[in-house]
Design a protein that fits this description.
The complex is a heterodimer of chains A (116) and B (113). With 116 residues, chain A is mostly beta strands. In chain A, 0% of the residues lie in helices and 59% in strands. Chain A is globular, with a radius of gyration of 13 Å. The chains are: A mainly beta (116), B mainly beta (113).
Chain lengths: 116, 113
């Protein structure tokens, strides 16, 4: 149980384009989803917290207009990197938690983004 | 700010031996702690969790110990196997009712066959 998927698993795009990453909870309803960013050999950095049906809460220093988050249903959240630049290249990971067990986050497999 | 660190950034263990990975934290309000395993190129995988009203919890080949007095968390892996090679992160919440996690820097465990 508690399976979270991400799509795509990797993406290469040109500078200036937008990229959408999907995060799905496959066998449970996720009241809360989280988006993280991870640079090589570093820990996970929380970017934003997303609750179904409401606006995401962004961490300090994360541009909400740059990283658009939509949590339209209890099983799907999307992260759109708008006007991507090479410095946005990173490993993006989502996690999800369910109602009644909100503290435990289950992670997706991650999406590697390379912006040329 | 919150500080979550690990005593040993890298750990090499002989196959079959026990592994101990440590984590120090500074927020005394944290009441929920998790250990995650992350293999190269993959997302973190939940291993075991513990709440602040406990000081020990056991799973399959893994044990988590919590010492709230000195704000120290450890993960013990029994009979370490090559498949245990990964980076291990401790994570904790910021207090009761908080669902956001702060992650430690990670310890890379290498198992020597």
């Amino acid at each position: 149980g508690a399976v979270v998927s991400q799509h795509p698993s990797w993406v290469i795009c040109k500078s200036g384009t937008s990229v959408k990453i999907e995060c799905r909870s496959l066998d449970f309803q996720a009241t809360t989803m989280f988006w993280y960013r991870q640079f090589p050999k570093q820990s996970l950095m929380l970017m934003a917290t997303s609750n179904e049906g409401s606006k995401a809460t962004y961490e300090q220093g994360v541009e909400k207009d740059k990283f658009l988050i939509n949590h339209a249903s209890l099983t799907l959240s999307t992260l759109t990197v708008t006007s991507a630049h090479p410095e946005d290249s990173s490993f993006y990971i989502c996690s999800a938690s369910s109602s009644g067990s909100e503290e435990t986050q289950y992670f997706g497999p991650g999406t590697r983004l390379l912006v040329l | 700010g919150e500080s979550v660190g690990l005593h040993l950034p890298t750990l090499s263990v002989q196959e079959g031996d026990n592994s101990i990975i440590n984590c120090a934290y500074s927020n005394s309000a944290s009441d929920y702690f998790i250990w995650y395993k992350q293999e190269s190129g993959k997302g973190p995988q939940f291993i075991i969790d513990i709440r602040s009203n406990m000081d020990k919890r056991q799973g399959q080949r893994v044990t988590v110990l919590l010492n709230k007095t000195v704000k120290h968390l450890s993960l013990q892996i029994a009979a370490t196997q090559p498949g245990d090679s990964a980076v291990y992160f401790c994570a904790l919440n910021s207090g009761a009712g908080s669902y956001q996690l702060t992650f430690g820097k990670g310890t890379k465990l290498s198992v020597i066959p």
